[in-house]
Amino acid sequence: MVMKSNKPILVTRSSMPPFDEYTEMIHNMWENRWLTNMGNMHEKLTSRLAEEFEADHFLLFSNGHMALELALQSLKLDGEVITTPFTFLSTTQAIVRNGLTPVFCDIDPVRFTIDPAKIEPLITDRTCAIVAVHVYGIPCETDAIEALAKKYGLKVIYDAAHAFQVRYKGQNIARYGDISMFSFHATKVFHTVEGGGAVCRDFGVYQRLSRLRNFGFFQGAFDGDQLGVNAKMSEFHAAMGLCNLRYINQEIQKRKNISECYDKILRKVKGLQLFPDIPELERNYAYYPVVFLNDAPKSRDKACEDLQKYNITARKYFFPLTSTFSCYKDLLHPEPTPAAEDIAGRVLCLPLYASLSEEEINRICDILLN
Ligand code: T4K
Predict the structure, then answer these.
(1) Tell me, what DSSP letter sits at residue 114?
(2) Is 88 in the pocket of ligand 1 (CB under 6 A)?
């Protein structure tokens, strides 16, 4: 019999650096009073992450959403953007808030990312870009996407919110596309409490994006033709990032161990589809998605409810599809995306964070197996 615990298990739990390391890191700020606007911590984290992403042009942001929204703006796009509905609502909102029209493309049911074979029929003379998502840290089929982009002269923006430290086909995931955007939210593998980043291929785009982030200023000078906002990261957030970076390899190793514990038990269960096997992928173990193959959506919803009875919260990331949100009812008329709809009705993300114990994993699996 599975025992109910008083200690709730949530879908994730932020990892924290040692308290003293963080206070040491911010100590000087009580002396110098430099708290934001690209201070010392901000500059250090920018250069550490540029190294991490193997990027020439990298910018920090106040959060991942602003990085994505401004990234799209910096590319001066107009018209239709082909994208996935199987994502967090930020992806679609960033497109719509830029005055662009999202055209929803179906996903690959094994990989959960946009299906390149379904992109080409959606391309029209209004199409300007593809916004693809490395959902759960699973890389999109970058070669096929970028071949299409080249053929039709489209920009490619990757929402890599979940993909920190993922490597694919021998290179850092950040090196794909015109821009790759990352989230450093508290729920992510690497976090700055709130925060985000963008890697740009082109220096001109980087300059524009930098201006958009800070009211139109670039390297201290105001460029009047570029209206910007305030999407800067503060020194306190950057300091958290610098501390967390020290532990990122341990963090990913612990998540790997936990994922392997789940795999060992759940791989034997018929009717469950687990994380896809993708050649040339180095994972970051950001999420543990499980797809219930039988009797959807009842079996997924039942599993979720049963776990909740034991104080365990799993999450239906990403249900419902963003194309179905009521805010788009009068604005968009999406074509059906049956594979995405099917997966959204069957998927459940199980708890995954560095301090999850083996005993807790066994308990979660026992409830699912029962
Ligand atoms: N693109 C994609 C594909 C994304 O998934 C996201 C964000 C973005 C873009 C935009 O990036 P950001 O602007 O957020 O940087 C969470 C996150 O807020 C969001 O960052 C994330 N994706 C999304 C998938 O998940 P919720 O509504 O599920 O979060 P919440 O508050 O329910 O938290 C989930 C669990 O995390 C809690 O049960 C406990 C734990 N938690 C949460 C917080 C806030 C902590 O341990 N510490 C915390 O501080 O959205």
Answers:
(1) B
(2) yes
Rounded Cα distance between 98 and 107, Å, is: 23
pLDDT number for residue 331: 83
Count other Cβ atoms within 10 Å, centred on residue 226.
17
Is the shortest distance between the CB of 48 and ligand 1 below 6 Å? no
Short-list 91, 41, 4, CA closest to 317: 91
Cα 304 to Cα 135, 246, 312, 364: the distances in Å are 21, 35, 9, 11
First to last CA, the chain: 9
CB-based contacts of 142-149 (< 8 A; 24+ apart in sequence): 142/168, 142/169, 142/176, 142/177, 143/169, 144/116, 144/117, 145/114, 145/116, 145/119, 146/176, 146/177, 148/116, 148/119, 148/120, 148/123
Burial profile 227-262: b = 16 or more Cβ within 10 angstroms, e = fewer: ebeebbbbbbbbbbbbbbbebbeebbebbeebbebb
Indicate the top mutation candidate among 90, 187, 347, 353 to test ligand 1's pocket, ranked by most ligand atoms within 8 A of CB.
187
Could you give the CA distance from residue 281 to residue 293 in angstroms, rounded to a whole number?
25
Mapping DSSP to helix (H, G, I), strand (E, B) and coil, where does residue 82 land? strand
Q: How far is the CA of 185 from the centre of ligand 1 (A)?
A: 6
**Dist. CA 65–CA 181, nearest whole Å:** 9
Please report the pLDDT score of residue 332 as a whole number: 85
- In this structure, are residues 244 and 17 in contact, taking their beta carbons and an 8 Å threshold? yes
Looking at every residue in the chain, the average pLDDT score rounds to 96
Cβ count within 10 A of residue 14: 14
Output the residue whose Cα is nearest ligand 1's atom 48: 186
SS3 208: helix
| C-beta of residue 304 within 8 angstroms of C-beta of residue 55 | no
Q: How far apart are CA 286 and CA 88, in angstroms?
A: 14
Burial of 357 (0-12, 13-18, 19+ CB in 10 A): exposed
Centre of ligand 1 to C-alpha 123, Å, is 32
Question: Model confidence at 325, in pLDDT bands (50, 70, 90)?
Answer: very high
Stronger pLDDT, 370 or 127, i.e. the higher one = 127
